[in-house]
Amino acid sequence: MPVSSALVTRFFQLLVNRRFAEGERELERIKEKMHKTEWNRGYFRALYGMLIARKSNNDNYAFLSKLDFNDKNVLQNYRKEFRGHVKSKLHGDFDRGFFSAWAKFMRILSKLAMDNSEAKSVISEKAKSKIVEKDKSQAKIESFLRVKA
After folding, report:
1. Fewest Cβ atoms nearer than 10 Å: which of 14, 34, 111, 138?
2. pLDDT tens sequence across 75-104
3. CA distance 108 to 131
């Protein structure tokens, strides 16, 4: 893809966090850096459509409004499906660019979902250790080992 991956990733992060004004500015930067090809036109149209769908958020028929951003397995399945469309010779360049944007979005979302689940597990481990520290009635392994020795 000729467009900077960092710009597109930043756009997706802004989209997920519903920061639309910044997302629109980032989308303009992406548009300025794109060459005028059918593939890029399809890619940009997908990005623009994602922004519009995310902004409206009340469209029950829109794919994006029904998507669970935290379900990693579903996101990976959609990514595989979109990648299949990208590789299909039945689609033209516009369509392949369009589906490529969606595949990249699913990849970024699954990474964000993974980061969120890892963060939650770290937080829950810290919370568990604090609970054990506060509960003096529980035996600690150090005291158990000292008694045996």
Report:
1. 138
2. 898 899 999 999 988 999 999 999 999 999
3. 35
